[in-house]
Amino acid sequence: MRFATRWAVLAVLLLAPAVPAPHAAAQAPLPSIAEKTRGMERRDGFVPVYWDASAGKLWMEVPRTGEELIYVVSLPAGLGSNDIGLDRGQIGGERLVRFDRVGPRVLLVQPNQAYRAVSPDENERRAVEQSFAQSVLWGFTVAAETDGRVLVDATDFVLRDAHGVVAALRRSRQGDYRLDATRSALYLQNTRGFPRNTEIEATLTFTGDNPGSLVRDVTPTPEAITLRQRLSFVALPPPGYRPRRSDPRGGFFGISYFDYATPVGEDIVQRMISRHRLEKRDPSAAMSEAVEPIVYYVDRGAPEPIRSALLDGARWWNQAFEAAGYRDAFRVELLPEGADPMDVRYNVIQWVHRSTRGWSYGNTVTDPRTGEIIKGHVTLGSLRVRQDYLIAEGLLAPYATGTERPAELERMALARIRQLAAHEVGHTLGLVHNYIASAQGRASVMDYPHPLVQLRADGTIDLSEAYTAEIGPWDKVAITWGYRDPPAGANEQAALDAVLAEARARGITLLTDQDARPAGSVSPVAHLWDNGADATAELRRTMRVRRAALDRFGQNAIRAGRPLATLEEVLVPVYLHHRYQVEAASKALGGVDYTYALRGDGQTPLTPVPAAQQRAALDALLATLDPAELALPRPLLALIPPRPMTYDPTRELFDRWTGMGFDAISPATAAADMTVGMILNPERAARLVEQGALDRRMPNLEWTLNQLVERTFRQRPDDEYLREIDRAVERVVVERLMVLAESAPMPQVRATAQQVLLNISRMITEHAVPYDAHGALLVSDIKRFVERPYQPQQRIAVPDAPPGQPIGSEDEF
């Protein structure tokens, strides 16, 4: 009975109306902003801030709640590891935001720009806004108010991991880090305001246990990583910008969104290019100055003569803007003394250091509504120029006495830096890669250029045309298409189509990343780091250059006083000089020549690569597997001792089975694996199956694999060194066939690869090829593979090649 009584009393208490305490007072009115900030340091600007030194707090005045602005996160001071990312100057992406006042709270809201209704009907717009989520990025408490302007404490908002440093460290498996608030603070030197932007910077320290090797390489105390983070609030650009619709043939990246106000039957996805605002002073003139030119600034941290090379290369773009009808509309200058490279008012070419060579890239701050580029920001890795210098050393071996300073080396390295500056600035102008350009006479700086190395009549190497020295014809077409406004009264779409049609008539077109980057891509002309209109002919020419360089390679490739063991660093790019031309030639196999054809534009959509061209490509590829081509000169093998103290091995060197000693076999194995791996790409193999079925005159997969086996298993070199390389190549072929037979998605590919493996086993056991210990192991391995179950293990028999492209992932461009 007592239990029930207690519950009854509790119910009465819960249901009884709340009675305010007699001493409760009404909420005190908020102080004015002037009262609250008395004694604080005001830093005026687009979003004014106040520094309270005694409390260590940063207060932010929100002047216009409900109005949209752009919010950007960046890293003014980075980590210095290409593999992890987190570079100096890295921009984390822009967001359209607004401050919404809700009683005592202010919410930083990011509207959903991916889904819109571009309509004057408010109800139609509201239906889309309420159908998709928005994001509230932060919540503030109002501490003071004056005439609708509110003051909020921004300290915690600023002192947080907005850039995602912890996530980047976790992705790269560098340890479990967390932000340490006790070791973080405002960085007042770079916290400042301007009429159209406010910059707030902080020093952030991340602490953790068990730091990974990449962190250990670049931090003085790996358990504490201190970086600087920037938060920028930027005013929206003024009205007047005219968005331009995207066209896959035009060569621009941009923005896209779903427009639910689009009439049924039209494309609901709207695509707009990204570009800077540029207007002629005299719109009616064929050539006119700009109302406001586009100006880029080069980082003063770049030393001479690199600084001048960066200025020269970036200025090439003025040629393209002149072709588009603008006089002196693109300028490049040195960053003014004291200017902040992260300030969104400056388009910047920044010189960035890392512990290893890595990618350069062009980034932008863009208006998410329209695609208008507000700031271009180029990141150039400083070690790229040194890598090109090293490549030139290996190709020329120019040090007869070891004390020379050959001018050709610096000339080539600086020529590459000019081209690189132009390339990355091109991205910040809105341009995508154009990987067909090398097949069209080096038509664009937006390609990835391999140095064009030529042989003189006397057999010596010529680097005079290693890189281009000006903008390409495609670059002029792209800038004209993207930036030139048609004459008044003209049909814009017709005028833009005419620009591209005229370029096609001159043989100038576009193919970009998805057409060239995958190892199994289908285009025979779109590749990275290649040369020439005919990839097969260029591969044969490149092999002749490679052999000439290897035959003269020796201690003349390094300066006097350098350890002879460091010859290997210079040797690697020479020995693998053909690696990307191999990739280019392989894409003729099962390849299809195509364009970004639109209905009605008169282009031929696709044409299979002719059978004769495919067979010629395979023949050139198989020639790279000849043991005589893979062998290193014997005098060179007698020059490279084990590495001395303090010259530790790096991933830039060949893997080896021989411990400390240089390995004479593994470089050949790695090079062979590159060729065989490209031939046996599973997507390429599937296309060979299909093209053989559609046209019996075309090479099919069975014929291709049989050619591979004939050219690699029928070798009988007399030289024992060449014989060991031959065995290494045979092992590569068997290992790659096993991978193809086990993991290819297409069953017909797996079946054909397994049958070829059985044929190899039969050849060996029937003594059609030499049956030695090597052959016996191959037979045993093939038998084990065929008698499933089989779980592929790590392929320890084939070493990886040292990296060719800049080390690490290419996250941006």
UniProtKB/TrEMBL annotation:
The keyword Signal applies. InterPro entries: DUF5117, EcxA_zinc-bd, Zn_MMP-like_bac. It comes from the Bacteria. This is Peptidase. Keywords: Signal. Residues 409-716 form the EcxA zinc-binding domain. Residues 89-281 form the DUF5117 domain. It comes from Longimicrobium terrae. The keyword Signal applies. Residues 793-813 are annotated as: Disordered. Residues 1-24 form the signal peptide.
